[in-house]
Amino acid sequence: MSVQEQSSEEPGGAPVEESAPAGAHPRSLAEDLRARDDSSLSALLRARPDLITPVPTDLTQLATRAGTRASVIRALERLDRFTLQTAQALAVAPDPAPYGTLQDLLAGDADDPVVVEALPHAVRDLREQALVWGSDDRLRLVRTARELLAPSPQHPSPTGLGPTVAEATTGMSPGRIQELLTAAGLATTHDAVSAVESLTGLFTDRARMSALLDSAPPESLEVLSRLVWGPPYGQVTADPAARLRWLLDRGLLLPTAPGTVVLPREVALHLRAGRAHQRTEPLPPPVEPVSVHRPQVVDSTAAGQAYTALATVEELLKDWDEGGPSVLRAGGLSVRDLKRTAVALDLTEPAAAFWVELAYAAGLLASDGAAEERYAATPAHDEWLDLPAAERWTWLATAWLSATRTAGVVGGRDTKERTLSALGPGLDRSAAPEVRHRVLSLLAALPEGGSASPDALVARLHWERALRGAAASDDLRSRLARWTLTEAESLGITGRGALSAHGRALLGAPPGAPAPEPAAGPGDKLPVHHRRHQHRHPRPAPAPEHRSPAELAAAAARAASLLAPLLPEPLDHVLLQADLTAVAPGPLQRPLADVLDVLADVESKGGATVYRFTPGSVRRALDAGRSASDLQAFLTAHSRTPVPQPLAYLIDDVARRHGHLRIGAASAYVRCDDDAVLNEIVADKRAQGFRLRRLAPTVLAAQADPATLLEGLRAMGFAPAAESAEGDVLITRAHAHRTPPRTPPEPVPDGPPAPDSTLLGAAIRAVRAGDLASTTPRKASAAPERNGVLPRTTSAETLATMQAAVLTGGTLWIGYVNAEGSASQRVIAPVRVEGGFVTAYDHTADEVRTYPLHRVTGVAELADDQA
């Protein structure tokens, strides 16, 4: 290999800056990036947003950052399986590798046509993300990626390949290498290097290698068959058997350590018919519909679930309206409170945790921040209740789509073996929004009304994120996908496993059309037949779609408009029955529902809600300030049936006795105009705990607080009412407890956010200008700068050069140190010099700026052909 052919990357992956003649092959990643146009750089920064945080000063720094270990790992994790297999094949190929060699490693001797057709797209993806650089006849994998993917004893490659002959024979004595040549039927050489080349040439020559293996004993071939697909290492004794000795003598197995042998890479590739992988997967696993329902059935089923979801969240927040459970010291909801909430909602604990977390993510509940902290509804909850039902649903659904808090992990353990609690810390999973979006997008790509198998969806996700998905069926992405299907069904985004019309609108896909797939990126030169092939098997977007707030609002409004006609209209009436029950045949208007919640107890839920009137519930309404006539008039106005006589009697009877007894503060007292009632209370053994004594014929004093006495007498069958110090009846209403204004929890991003077009344009201009400043030739000066060092000139020289550039309109290269002491190089066109400042157009920042002259370290004129 000549000097020009050697890679110019340092061991850590950072490219060394070199100048290459025009038209020559790039000798570093920085040179490769320098040859790209702005659209290609935009695609790189969009695919790897970590490279733009902060904005690199020039292309050399961008290339260096693209080769760092953390950035390369992040990029590899976002590759689909075939693109990752392409990178793995490059890691075991010669460096640099011609495109044909790479194709042979993936397609094999049979030239698999599907692999041949898909490979250009995979190479384009790797090149676009700066994981591969160079022309097609000299493809190079960045150094860090090669180190991560190349096989080693400590980190076996997924290819199952071992080291090359040259790598495996490092340290072997020259005499032993010559013995291998002789046993293999090759002529001896004068040095070890040529001997290794001769042995490698034999193993890579298909005809000669086949002839050598034809002479091998069957037992030796069986040994090779056990190692061919990996792992390539095996154990041998100090005195190997004849079948092993035959292989060792000819270099088909090479020793790597005492008692350990390895199958050389070239031998394995011959036995594999040239394939680097046992199973190459150029196509994503198909997601086919397992059942197809009529779209109207799917939409109506999903709408029913959406209505149930709204009712569940309303009931949860109503249960916590006066203040919910206490906040644990470590944060979150206790197991006991979660169980109590699950019982109140008639749900399982995992389902209750989901609804609690959803309300929290939507900003409807939070901790109140008081000294004895507890959970309560937020002011946003009251705003939410005033919205139409469909808009309340989109509020919840959009919060769920973007939330990183994952209810499915509640009850599990964190890294410190602490139990994860609902509403507690440690529930964020940054991959959740991407997985939710992708699962729903795959459902959107099916025919309308089609549902998919969860296993097929999980297999597709594993293919799309091969390094993250691994092979386990219980990895996080698999669990997130299965939770997504369950939660989407509970929310009413899907119905019967198929995506509904309002769910499709929420994703931004028009009804009846598949979810949008990413367009081909810059430089995509796939043939027409390959693009058709890609359309049948679309590749996923590298991240969930990023829409502006206006686009999100438009999608939510469209989803609400599609859902609204499917939701039942709230009713303004109930059906009263003679058994002291009322049946609500559908959802009730809010004022009616609020009054019924006080006047009656909910007996059963479902399509129709059954309320039961009891003395306690009627008394609750009277305590809230309602009179018997008010209650009779209310029921008459809102019932489609006459008020039954038993219910009218119940209301009148409770009202007649309500307030007959009065409870006040002594510790407490009881007063009643009917002394016979007081005599009955004193004689009752159940009242002994109150230590009652008569103060007057109509007054009893008690050694108990008023609230305890009130509840005790009610338990004895009386209907007392509390009174104030002035003797007025106290009206008791439930007081809603609200937190101070709270913002919903912020999602934890999965890496830096994708840059928008404005940021990309500004960043590319800054990088180009910085690169111009660092690479443009300068005129020789009296004190020429050394490579990488800021220019140095005296103050007088700096001032004179600046003034001359103002007159001539020239462009200068300056060194500048800002107020924080950070040094940089800039290319400026001076406009005015006065008062110790220079005003100039800064090519690096692409704007006019003013610089103090005392901070300019030096100045140099650009070469005439670069000015």
TrEMBL record:
<feature type="domain" description="WYL">
    <location>
        <begin position="797"/>
        <end position="859"/>
    </location>
</feature>
<feature type="region of interest" description="Disordered">
    <location>
        <begin position="1"/>
        <end position="35"/>
    </location>
</feature>
<protein>
    <submittedName>
        <fullName>Uncharacterized protein</fullName>
    </submittedName>
</protein>
<feature type="region of interest" description="Disordered">
    <location>
        <begin position="736"/>
        <end position="757"/>
    </location>
</feature>
<feature type="domain" description="Helicase XPB/Ssl2 N-terminal">
    <location>
        <begin position="574"/>
        <end position="696"/>
    </location>
</feature>
<feature type="region of interest" description="Disordered">
    <location>
        <begin position="508"/>
        <end position="552"/>
    </location>
</feature>
<feature type="compositionally biased region" description="Basic residues">
    <location>
        <begin position="528"/>
        <end position="539"/>
    </location>
</feature>
<feature type="compositionally biased region" description="Pro residues">
    <location>
        <begin position="741"/>
        <end position="755"/>
    </location>
</feature>
<dbReference type="Pfam" id="PF13625">
    <property type="entry name" value="Helicase_C_3"/>
</dbReference>
<dbReference type="Pfam" id="PF13280">
    <property type="entry name" value="WYL"/>
</dbReference>
<dbReference type="InterPro" id="IPR032830">
    <property type="entry name" value="XPB/Ssl2_N"/>
</dbReference>
<dbReference type="InterPro" id="IPR026881">
    <property type="entry name" value="WYL_dom"/>
</dbReference>
